[in-house]
Amino acid sequence: MLPDLYPWLKWLHIVAMISWMVGLFYLPRLFVYHAETDSDDVRGTLSVMQARLMKVIMTPAMLVTWLSGIALVASLGQAGLWLLLKIVCVLALTGFHGVCGKWRKELAAGTSTRDGRFFRMMNEVPTVFLIAIVGLVVFKPFG
C-alpha cells in the first residue's frame, strides 16, 4: 500500500514546500514595504496581508510540508547524512517562519525597530536554505 502512495506523498510534499517557500519569499518583502511607508492606511493594509499570508498559506503549507516529509522519510526505511542535513535546514526554515511571525506582530503593533534594509537582508535567508535543501535532495552527498 505505501509504495503506491509514495508518488502522491512526494507530489504533496513538493507542492506544499513550494507554497511555503513562496510565502517565505514574499512575507519579508511585505515587511520592507511596511517598514518604509509613512502611511497608516498602507501599514494597515500590509498588516492584514501579512496576517492572512501566514494564517491561510504559509502555516498550513509548512505543516503539510512537515507531515508529508515525515511520511516520506518513514517510507524510505533508510537515509544518509544528506537527509539529516536537509532536516536541519528545514528546522532552520521553520525557525525563520516563527521569527517572521514575531516580526509581523511587531510591525502590526508599531513596535518594530527594524528598517527596510534589515528586512531586505532577511528576504535572502529562505533563498540560501532553498539552494541547500534542493542541492541535498538532488545530489544526496554524504551517502
Report on this structure.
This protein is an all-alpha fold. 86% of the residues lie in helices and 0% in strands. It has one domain. Helix 1 packs antiparallel against helix 2 (40-76). It is elongated and about 55 Å long.
Note poorly predicted spans: none
Helix content: over 70%
> What radius of gyration results from the CA coordinates?
17 Å
In one word, what is the shape? elongated
Number of domains: 1
Number of helices: 5
The computed structural class is mainly alpha
- Percent strand: under 5%
Order of helices and strands: HHHHH
Number of DSSP strands?
Answer: 0
What is the average per-residue confidence, as pLDDT, rounded to a whole number? 95
Give the N-terminus to C-terminus distance in angstroms: 27 Å
Largest sheet: none
List the helices and strands and how they pair.
Layout: H1 2-36, H2 40-76, H3 81-109, H4 116-122, H5 125-139
Descriptive key words:
mainly alpha; 5 helices
Can you give me a brief rundown of this structure?
With 143 residues, this protein is mainly alpha-helical.
